[in-house]
């Protein structure tokens, strides 16, 4: 996207939840002192992508649902505004899910009752209802003003609840002892992985009563170690972990440390790259996974590629 398109999308996003929802692009172009031909070429590009649409004659345009989602996914607008609107849609879906679970799948919710129960402005609610309808999360009942949550919407709510459960597990883990925090972190990573479609490999018990965690996806096997200590991980911890890896052909390592790694530990990891690569995550990586700003798949793949092709050991 060009800077002109980003600026225009931001302005249309801010207007989308107001009344009127449209924006006069003639006025917008003049206020931003943009060349006429260049500007309308940029507008046409956004129309071609189905992000915006002409609302009426005279240069009035509105943002489409795809445009709203594009702005939010790419963080083109104010982060506080984006979070507010996303939370509103979550509240609506959660309430419609409650209606489904309480009164059955054929019990619709009247929009004015929904606005009252959520303490939400009616016009603001209706704007989000239209969005959720286009997205397939809800459907309008045959009788006007009534809405039902769809199977797609129900799956979305169940996913949201699972994420909230993982976040609560993470918050609760901070008050545990170091040993219990490590096991709690392992459970959190397990839940995140299962949520993203990873499989758990059954493994033999090692070192007394400790059961190894192995995650599998796309024929890639990762032996996982989770530590939540006060001090950074040392070289001995890496040697012990590599000793477990060495007995498993074609396995990769994933070492997650909430306290980072010493220089000696990092050097050991680099020395093992040609045999059993060990991908590392730090505390900010875990936070990003918990907040779902990045998927486990993507983070593992990024770190593995840089480790094996550029010999760069990264973690945050």
From TrEMBL:
InterPro entries named among the record's database cross-references: Restrct_endonuc-II-like, Restrct_endonuc_IV_Mrr, tRNA_endonuc-like_dom_sf
Residues that span the membrane, as ranges: none
Official protein name in the record: Restriction endonuclease type IV Mrr domain-containing protein
Domain of life: Bacteria
Pfam families recorded: Mrr_cat (PF04471)
Location of the Restriction endonuclease type IV Mrr domain: 182-271
